[in-house]
Amino acid sequence: MPFGTPEGGIAEYVNNVSKFLARKHNVTVYGTNPNQSFPRMEYVDGVRVERFKHYYLGGAYGFSIELPLRLRKSKFDIVHGHGYHSFPLHFCTLAKCNRFIASTHFHGHGHTVFRNSLLRLLKPFGKRTLLKADKIVAVSDYEKSILEKAFKLDSSKIIVISNGLNLNEFSNLKRNRRDFKSMLYVGTLYSYKGPQYLIEVLPKLDDDVILEIVGKGPLRQSLETRAKELKVRDRVKFYQDLPRDELLQKYADADLFVLLSRYEAYSIVVAEALVAGKHCILTRTSALTEWIDEENCFGINFPVDIDEFARLAKKVFDLGPNKNKGKKWIGKKILEWKDVADRLESVYLG
Q1: Fewer Cβ atoms within 10 A, N terminus or C terminus of the chain?
Q2: What residue ranges of the chain have pLDDT lower than 70?
Q3: Alpha carbon distances (Å) from 110 to 82, 143, 192
């Protein structure tokens, strides 16, 4: 089960699914080790993990010389590759196996001009990989639709299995009393994910509204600079690399969760916010539209109009806690990781 990124959503997906599959099957994960900061080989939760030297082109399409050589010598019953935007998925075609499954985690766009150029350049190569796959797993109807359109794939070849959560993590969360209202963002600090809009709207919201940003990325410095220019720097709190329990507490304490992203294939952070009992404001784009119901998740058009955003935020703050706690989506768009593993197992067995 090779996968292509050392951290982030794909790694979380593979880590959680692998440990459940390992209860009944022999599972090996081939991963990446760009900075040689992890052991070359180890066992984690019953999963054999092998890591290979890896290099990145502009932060995308990671390349390894060791990995394809290892795959050429490998033989598995099932090979499940992850991450269209990184070479390891495409290297999976080198391995001898009875069945090849691809999870693309694809939203159709690169995050920079360079990445978009690579996306277009490597499209024929990527289509070849997807045509070789016995089945393709998409995490949303949106991802399935853009795969069909971009690569002219047969709809029957693509199966939708949503991402998962460990729901028991949220069962005992208690909200702390605080003397301010919290607007929460969780995610990498890229402009396409929209954290800059949260800085821009702060001067238009009440003085007791604090913006809490959990994540790191290239936009951090410009966000701080803009907050100073707007004289709201003291109302913005940045956090990164939070332990899991502290991140969950941020969800619990927030009054409003916001993700104004241009592209998302699913968005685990939205699922987490909903299960933690938060109302959300999301852009009417990509897979985020599948969450918007104007009751739990409220939609706003993209590009974002700051005045419209301010009016909507004030309205949602006034609603108070969301007592639904994701019940509407649990078992549908929000699965337990064990359920994700069970559904994948049925795909593996054909």
Answers
A1: C
A2: 1-8, 56-62, 108-119, 121
A3: 16, 14, 10
Strand ranges across the sheet with 41-44: 28-32, 47-52, 41-44
Residues 51 and 157 in one domain: yes
First to last CA, the chain: 17
Instruction: List Cβ<8 Å contacts ≥24 apart for 305-308.
Output: 306/197, 306/200, 306/201, 306/204, 307/204
How far apart CA 348 and CA 338 sit, in angstroms, is 15
Q: Domain limits at 227?
A: 167-317
Contact 186, 250 (CB under 8 A): yes
- Tell me the pLDDT tens digit for each residue of 258-301: 999 999 999 999 999 999 999 999 999 999 999 999 999 999 99
Whether residue 176 sits in one domain with residue 134:
no
User: How many domains, the chain?
Assistant: 2
Pairing outcome for strands 55-57 and 60-63 = antiparallel
The answer to whether the CB of 28 falls within 8 A of the CB of 76 is: yes
Note whether 196 and 228 are same-domain residues: yes
Match 């795909």 to its residue by tokens: 347
